[in-house]
Amino acid sequence: MAGNSQRRGAVRKGGSKKGAVVGSGGKRRRGLEGRGATPPAEMRTKHPAAKRAAAKAKAAQGRSSSSGRPAGRKSDDGPELVLGRNPVVECLRAGVPATALYVAVGTENDDRLTESVRMAADTGISILEVPRTDLDRLSANGLHQGVALQVPPYRYAHPDDLLDRARGAAEPALLVALDNISDPRNLGAVIRSVAAFGGHGVLIPQRRSASVTAVAWRTSAGAAARLPVARATNLTRTLKDWASQGVQIVGLDAGGDTTLDDFDGGEPTVIVVGSEGKGLSRLVRESCDAILSIPMAGPVESLNASVAAGVVLSEVARQRRA
């Protein structure tokens, strides 16, 4: 009979009120529903493809920071973004050939920003007001301070054109080649010294070398706008080709076979400067006609690459004036 709790299967659970017991709350129904499209492998954090993509991005960021490029740099041959108020105003003071100055909406004004806008307006550089989120996307760490400067890619000369221009000058050719120089500040300082002491240009390898970025522009104090820089596909082959055309190739090294006191810089000369740590590479060293060392009175074993280049260039300029 109805309500007979003694019949089989009609036992009420203890502590429950009359009626249906607590159900699943719809969990079983939602569990049967679809979860949508499967995301790409690169977006699944535990997928091997995602791990490879993360490692590749990390390696690219490491190469960017080690080479001294700002976070906005996209490629070696693309435009570069200089981020931050001090770097931007220094580039404008140095005469870097920028194409646009970006200022974030609502950026607080100060002397550096005022000077940057004034110099950009005076030189005909476009001044664009953009949302702050646009600059956030262009900088890896967001430290743009509301301002960015776009710099076009540097136009390198061809090594043959560089030598022809140097040989056509009134004085004997004087060029500097850089081997294993990875710091753009050293490159900019060498460009500045070559221009200051009457040199005709700088040669760098296409790979494993600092390039003419905004950092090099700023360090050169604008000399990169007046002095040609050539990029060689193979530095050793280019040096051997120049030597066959009557140019002496002189490498700088602390253990050289001759000193700067005995060096004759009156002939057409290419001074080859190696990195401070590794020095000249083996093949480049073997391509040199002589290895030159700088005599030093103090206990210092070596000089910074750009400083060593400046010392030798100064001595060559003195000899040629005499």
From TrEMBL:
Q: Which residues form the RNA 2-O ribose methyltransferase substrate binding domain?
A: 81-157
Superkingdom of the organism of origin: Bacteria
What is one GO biological process annotated to this record?
Answer: methylation
One MF annotation (Gene Ontology) recorded for this entry: RNA binding
Give the UniProt keywords, A-Z.
Methyltransferase, S-adenosyl-L-methionine, Transferase
Q: Which NCBIfam families does the UniProt record give?
A: rRNA_methyl_3 (TIGR00186)
The UniProt entry's sequence similarity note says: Belongs to the class IV-like SAM-binding methyltransferase superfamily. RNA methyltransferase TrmH family.
Protein name as it appears in the record: 23S rRNA (Guanosine(2251)-2'-O)-methyltransferase RlmB
